[in-house]
């Protein structure tokens, strides 16, 4: 499975993520989402379920002119995201809202976004963790962010040419694509994330738009064939973020 960076902090090249109060730690697939999402030209970006603030800060680094808003339901995680943003070079451009997506959409009345990022809860049928915060972060539940709510709110908050990029395992992505279609969103691009060339897809990073367009599908192998060494493509993608690269 993907590497979960479970230390109390993770140091990137240009910012630091403190994560001791967050149920979901920095992990490899989320870093790939933050680096691979097509953010060129986006001036308003929303990170739904920001957790540590990782995606919001990656977006801020990639887009020097962008204003980033982030929403996080868990109060401890939201406070950590606020602190991480405040210590970053982009504190003036990142705002964290400690509330649910529904509350944010209803009370803030935000201007439309050019791009929305989300790494949503996805273990709909697996065993629940005894850690309630970790369970809420990883599992869909009646009181957590549902695929239906995410798709419907994103469809409202996107600009006409805006994009929603979501990270999910392939079975859950199929479910989300059905909800997105009902909300009027179309699949525009898909990055198939694998451990090695030829191995099974472990995550799909899928981009949705408000207008139909031809599907562009590509794949990324994190490691070289038959090796633990990171692939050249993976190193190039994360080169602006990982100290090791």
Automatic annotation (TrEMBL):
Keyword Zinc-finger: no
Record carries keyword tRNA processing: yes
Annotated GO MF terms: methyltransferase activity
GO biological process, one term: methylation
Compartments, as annotated in UniProt: Cytoplasm
PROSITE patterns named among the record's database cross-references: N6_MTASE
Domain Methyltransferase small: 42-133
Record's protein name: tRNA1(Val) (adenine(37)-N6)-methyltransferase
Gene3D superfamilies hit by this protein: Vaccinia Virus protein VP39 (3.40.50.150)
Transmembrane intervals: none
Chief place where the protein resides: cytoplasm
Reaction it catalyzes: adenosine(37) in tRNA1(Val) + S-adenosyl-L-methionine = N(6)-methyladenosine(37) in tRNA1(Val) + S-adenosyl-L-homocysteine + H(+)
EC top class named in words: transferase
Superkingdom of source: Bacteria
């Amino acid at each position: 499975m993907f590497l979960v960076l479970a230390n109390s902090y993770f140091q990137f090249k240009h910012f630091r993520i403190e994560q001791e109060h967050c149920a979901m730690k920095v992990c490899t697939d989320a870093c790939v989402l933050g680096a691979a999402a097509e953010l060129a030209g986006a001036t308003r970006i929303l990170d739904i379920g920001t957790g540590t603030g990782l995606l919001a800060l990656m977006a801020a680094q990639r887009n020097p002119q962008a204003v980033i808003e982030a929403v996080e339901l868990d109060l401890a995680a939201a406070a950590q995201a606020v602190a991480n943003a405040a210590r970053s070079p982009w504190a003036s451009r990142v705002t964290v809202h400690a509330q649910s997506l529904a509350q944010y959409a209803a009370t803030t009345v935000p201007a439309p976004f050019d791009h929305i990022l989300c790494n949503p809860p996805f273990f709909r049928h697996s065993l629940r963790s005894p850690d309630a915060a970790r369970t809420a972060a990883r599992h869909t539940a009646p009181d957590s962010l549902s695929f239906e709510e995410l798709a419907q709110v994103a469809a409202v908050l996107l600009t006409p040419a805006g994009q929603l990029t979501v990270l999910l395992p392939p079975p859950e992505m199929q479910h989300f694509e059905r909800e997105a279609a009902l909300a009027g969103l179309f699949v525009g691009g898909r990055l198939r994330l694998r451990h090695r060339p030829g191995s099974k897809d472990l995550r799909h990073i899928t981009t949705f738009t408000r207008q139909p367009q031809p599907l562009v599908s590509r794949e990324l192998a994190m490691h070289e064939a038959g090796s633990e060494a990171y692939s050249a493509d993976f190193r190039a993608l994360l080169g602006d973020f990982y100290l090791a690269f």
